[in-house]
Amino acid sequence: MKGVTMLASVWRFVIVSVGMSGLRLDGSHRMARTALFVGVLAVYYLAGPLAVTPSVACWYAGAVWILYYGGLSLVLGGPGRRLLIDRFGEARALTIYEIGLGVLFCNQGFAQAVIIYAFGDSFPSAVPLWASFLAGGALMAVGLTCKTWAACTTGLDTYYCHDMFRGSATPGDLVISGPYRYLRNPMYSVGNLHAYGWALWSRSLEGLACAALFQLGIYAFYHLYERPFIRRVYSVAAAH
């Protein structure tokens, strides 16, 4: 029985880890999601590095930033979700939204990758290799651990903002366990340290700037849209 429980825990960890990168294997349309995700990865890995220049990298990272945070704001904070639901129905609209968000999750990681690849080693020579490797490795370990812990605690539906898309939540949905006992936003704060760690490991000043830009974007989204939603919905839910 313990072996079965352990296998279930490992499988859940795999599902959450893969889901964080943009591919959900625990819902419907798994084959279509996987085919799309693999296709995106193939294009990036086979064709992407051949065309990356500093100019292309900056334009690509900027486009991903706008599509990611602008798209989230339009869909979850604006009329986008209602238009999708009216056109496709809630179930299909949620699937379309989720697949699109998954593609953006994937692109977010590649945006930093192409910035680092295009600009190369830009750290001052005075910074020793061992220091950047040690600091980068430590930040990547801490950030990924915290973000995965938080995602495993909340579940992927929360990671993909299902409650905001539906515009409602139940009292039991508000998570205060795991890392949320210590941090208000473990995914957005400590969970983002892995991006800075990757830039440090790669000795890329531009990578650090890219990590900061994307963290600024998610905090702006949180303060403008997510926090007001949480306060409004969960206070109403608690009252009932």
From TrEMBL:
Q: What membrane topology does the UniProt entry give?
A: Multi-pass membrane protein
- Annotated localization: Endomembrane system
User: Where is the signal peptide, in residue numbers?
Assistant: none
TM stretches of this protein: 6-23, 35-53, 59-78, 99-120, 126-146
Alphabetically list the UniProt keywords. Membrane, Methyltransferase, Transferase, Transmembrane, Transmembrane helix
Which Gene Ontology terms describe the biological processes this protein takes part in?
A: methylation
The record ties this protein, via Gene3D superfamilies, to: 1.20.120.1630
**Which residue stretches, if any, does this entry annotate as coiled coil?**
none
Q: What is its EC number?
A: 2.1.1.-
Q: Where is this chain primarily localised?
A: membrane
Q: Which Pfam families match?
A: PEMT (PF04191)
Query: Would you tell me the protein name for this molecule?
Result: PEMT/PEM2 family methyltransferase
Which organism is the protein's source? Nonomuraea purpurea
